[in-house]
């Protein structure tokens, strides 16, 4: 658990190519004290997407603020929350469970975004862009799950 490889799983470690801005983010990470999970690119992407979702939710009409807004904010914040929880879990099953929940919450957020699109609160282009970002996060979560399993020696 103490090595930088364990704590900062990079896209290369789990077979996923880098993304734009990754080297700048690495410099920023190295210059400040942060929690271990903050080194995970998938947590950073999920956190940034959550902030983006919050901005969209602020534009929703009052009639939706306690319905879709609340559900979308909860599911979008649950993605980085559960990635962090899974990463910091001591026990293997708890670690995997946290990532499974994060993946499910990402799917739920995608569904809420389609509902916003269907109700004309966001455009199809906006919905597709945000859903695409969740797809990248889901792939990253899957890659991390596979990496943890391989490290443990699981066959699945």
Automatic annotation (TrEMBL):
Could you tell me which CDD domains the record lists for this protein? 23S_rRNA_IVP_like
Pfam entry (one): 23S_rRNA_IVP
- Enumerate the transmembrane spans: none
Recorded hits in Gene3D superfamilies, A to Z, give: 23S rRNA-intervening sequence
**Superkingdom of source:** Bacteria
Tell me the PANTHER family matching this sequence. Answer: FOUR HELIX BUNDLE PROTEIN
Provide the protein name: Four helix bundle protein
Native source organism of the sequence = candidate division WOR-1 bacterium RIFOXYB2_FULL_48_7
């Amino acid at each position: 658990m103490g090595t930088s490889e364990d704590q900062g799983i990079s896209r290369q470690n789990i077979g996923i190519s880098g993304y734009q801005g990754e080297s700048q983010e690495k410099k920023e990470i190295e210059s400040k004290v942060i929690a271990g999970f903050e080194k995970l690119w998938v947590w950073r992407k999920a956190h940034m997407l959550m902030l983006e979702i919050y901005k969209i939710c602020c534009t929703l009409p009052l009639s939706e603020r306690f319905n879709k807004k609340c559900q979308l904010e909860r599911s979008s914040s649950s993605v980085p929350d559960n990635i962090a929880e899974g990463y910091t879990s001591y026990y293997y099953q708890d670690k995997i469970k946290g990532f499974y929940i994060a993946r499910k919450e990402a799917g739920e957020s995608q569904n809420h975004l389609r509902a916003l699109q269907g109700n004309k609160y966001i455009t199809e282009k906006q919905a597709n862009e945000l859903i695409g970002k969740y797809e990248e996060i889901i792939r990253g979560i899957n890659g991390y799950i596979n990496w943890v399993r391989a490290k443990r020696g699981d066959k699945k």
